[in-house]
Amino acid sequence: MFEPLPFTEPGRWIRAGFHCHTLESDGGLSPAETVARYRRRGYQCLGLTDHRLVTPTAPFTDGSFLGIDATENGGDPDVIGVGVARPAPAEWSLRERCRALAEQGGFTIAAHPHYCAVQPQDYVECPELMALEILNAYCDEAYANGVAVELWDMLLGLGKRIWGVAGDDAHLNPKKRYYSDAGRGWVEIWTASLSQEAVLSALKRGAFYSTQGPRFRSIALDEQGVRIDCTPVREVRWRTHGSVGFVEHASEAGPLTTSRLPAWFKAKRYVRIELVDHQGRRAWSNPVFQER
Ligand SMILES: [Zn+2]
To answer: Which residues are within 5 Å of ligand 1 (an ion), measured at CB?
Structure first.
């Protein structure tokens, strides 16, 4: 039996990003230009995560777009706080910084874990760490260390309840090693309204997924287990802790738009679902946890 999923309330998917930089730190565009670029790419929600400071987003919020104040806090390993008014001192431990950001009501994301050369235990010992940056598009393009999906499974296997977040780390700056544009990796959040309170609540409950392009239309539980509907893809990959796993491949009949956890699949701790589209782009659901 699985824990109830957070998608049962009425809502809609919104596109959101929580890792980009502006001229306030080492980005190449002003906050207004950065927001405009993201809005043109279909985002309805954005946090400007300049280093060690909070760039105000209130001027950019209107009926169809929500800015959420955020920061790439600083410190090693680094952490992003979403929905916070100020960073914590960078010299504090990861645990202390996460606690300080969480106490402000923030959602905490471990930034580019492999760039920070972490060990899984660094995150397990951090109860207020809520999410892991499973894709950092800038680190992937510039340093070949931006993918942390296997680390995510290790943490989940150790019993850490942690969500997965894809981010651009966009700098939009020709002087950086890579321009790292907007829209390389983002989250789709299931929310009833475009308010900061609703979005932060959805993030903390795991009511979102991460993607480079393919979309989940629904992730649901029924008497037979977990079932997903999605945009047309080449593979649906079902993953759990350990040796059991299942990849459903598209057939000559056409791409996959739905998949179901097979009855024989013995999940251990959790299952999570990956989509792979015909361009090789991926989407990652959050883990669906087994009841304890
Ligand atoms: Zn960054």
So the answer is: 72, 169
